[in-house]
Amino acid sequence: MPAANATAGPVVLTPREIAFFDQLRERLLHGMDATVGETQLLLECSGLPTEFWGFALTLYQPRHARLMVVRAAARPSFENIRSAVARARNHPRFGHFDPADRDRCRLQIDFIPDPPAPADFESFSESALDGRRFEFGIDGLRILDGGQRRYLLPGDAFVSSLLGLRQLKRRVQRLFPGISWEQLEFQRFRSISFVSTSGGWVRLVRGYPAVTPATAATLHAAATAGARWIVDRRLPDGRFTYYYDAATDSQRDHEHPTRDPRTDPYYNLLRHCGGVITLLLWREYHQAYHRAGTAPDREQHPLESFPTALSEAIESGIEFYVRQLVPYTAPDGRPAAYAYYNRKAKLGGSGVGLYMLALYQRLFRTGKYVPHARRLAHHLLHEILDSGEFRYYHVYLDRPVAEADNRALFSFYYPGEALLGLAHYCQHVCDAESERRAIYARIHDALRFLFDARPRIYRQHYTNLPADSWLMMAILDLWDVSEFQREAYSQPVFHDADRMVDQMYTPNRAPFPDYTGSFFYHYGDHPYPDGARAEGLLAAYLLARKTGDITRMARYYQALQWAAWATLRLCNTPDSVYSVPDPQRAVGGIRFKLTRQWFRVDTIQHVACFYLKFLPHLTEEP
Fold first, then answer.
1. 249 close to 197: Cβ distance less than 8 angstroms
2. What is the pLDDT of residues 191-236, one digit of tens each?
3. d(Cα 513, Cα 203) in Å, to the nearest integer?
4. What is the Cα–Cα distance from 275 to 87, expressed in whole angstroms?
5. Contact 381/442 with Cβ under 8 angstroms?
6. Is it true that the peptide bond before 335 is cis, omega within 30 degrees of 0?
7. Does residue 172 sit in helix, strand or coil?
């Protein structure tokens, strides 16, 4: 597919297109025989395809298996539409649906322009740039076994959360129980797809509604919906709902498939802190911009309309975290504490937790959690070894970690998280200059290790797509302190940001238009629309602004706009959850991949935080 117009806005349907689609809904309710001529005329006047090989009509309604009818190869083409409507009305499960209820019953319409082409499933590739490539969400399958035939519409990748040929193969095998794989014949096709909404119709791209431009209003709405999801799904003990698979209405975590989410739920303390950080940044954004009347979509999302539970969610989330702190006396005799959860005391758990508490103090200035922050800071300070390397785990599976065992437990991300926590602590919590000077000295030691020694010692952990956004954010935070304004610290940030932009699909080199703004390891990879990396790229942009690097500012700003547009595809809106069992529970979630339906608290966090931090700079002219 050509990459032209990759950043265009959504396809706006014409009144005539909408009139035809509304007529189809009426025909589903009342039958078509008496109005065949009228319906055909509406199609001919609509600008929609009038000559096509096949037509698919799919009905969705919460808590019911969808009903899909495909009719193909009839001439004239309109006979496919008439036959599909008649077959749907006569289907044994048609009574489960209420097409008159536009809020609950959603209709999907697919025109299949060309006859499916024979395909060899075993030759399919996920990354090839030629005819072997099977593009999830764009390609569909017609599968035959003698007299049986089944269809996987292109958008079924999104509807069923499919990504990967092995997963696709398992899905096909479930459609043909007891049939050997060798008996199946495959044909591939593409379609032009639309779905109804509560108030109209929208064009589907890869199974989800065509995404609106990345404006202040759309980014703010997505960040607010994500923060609202976190708040609304908090648990009585202060935790948040960690994981949700909208396609199956389940909290069973694909990374921990043997855990029963009801009796043995997995939870991650670092990502818990990320949920609180999201709520704090949302609150900060509105403190700074909403009260001044400059926040986007003010009338749609006034401050008072956000759940009053926001403050309670912040407080209960922090209280849950501080209950996981283990106090001890540091080697210098001062009180310290580390975060301990799931039998581990991770450097990142204490680092992100300290950043969260320092951010709370920056916003509220109450001193409520200052003692906890001090203990965490003292702990992190003593986790920097004489070499400058951090100890990655203080405790691992209930056992203290000796320095000799440290490198076997290496983590790429924990040092950056720890440094961001320490930097924020020094600037917004610490009130003793002697303590601040001691921490800054050790931060210098840690940075020397990270920028000089780590690339040599841990070379195998580096990839061509940089990922250490926490460290990039830490350097930005430290840059406000004059002694950290060193080229030795800024250049690694710019190096990683330049590599990120190099490894980003852009309009003129995106294999598919909606790849634009996503990252890749190797050109041709399925796209990575990544809020975490976007946060790092934003830190590089702000650092370039502080250093007066106009060229980099312009380059990064353009990439940030593309990244914002790409990640909007991950944001569940009322229009995009047409197929899930529980739409209300899915709205506001921010998914992991384009055709994945699952999301976690951190997939919401990184995208929402990127938007909240980017919004104040969205109208800047680099």
1. no
2. 999 999 998 999 999 999 988 889 999 999 999 999 999 999 999 9
3. 15
4. 47
5. yes
6. no
7. helix
In whole angstroms, what is the distance from residue 514 CA to residue 505 CA?
A: 9
- For residue 384, give the nearest of 330, 428, 333 by alpha carbon: 330
The pLDDT of residue 299 is 42
DSSP, residue by residue, 556-599 = HHHHHHHHHHHHGGGB--TTTTTTSS-HHHHTT-B-SSTT--EE
Is-contact 508 2, C-beta < 8 A? no
CB 92 within 8 A of CB 100: no
Contacts of 193 (CB under 8 A, 6+ apart): 108, 109, 110, 111, 153, 154, 155, 203, 204, 207
Q: Which residues of the chain have pLDDT under 70?
A: 1-11, 290-307, 621-622
Q: For 44-62, give one letter per residue: b (16+ CB within 10 A) or e.
A: eebebeeebbbbbbbbbbb
Distance in angstroms (rounded) separating the CA atoms of residues 271 and 48: 46
Residues 564, 51 contacting (CB under 8 angstroms): no
Distance CA 85, CA 79 (A): 10
* β-sheet with 185-189: strand ranges across: 117-119, 185-189, 140-145, 148-152
Phi first, then psi: give them for residue 234, nearest 5 degrees. Answer: -75, 155
What pLDDT sits at residue 287?
83
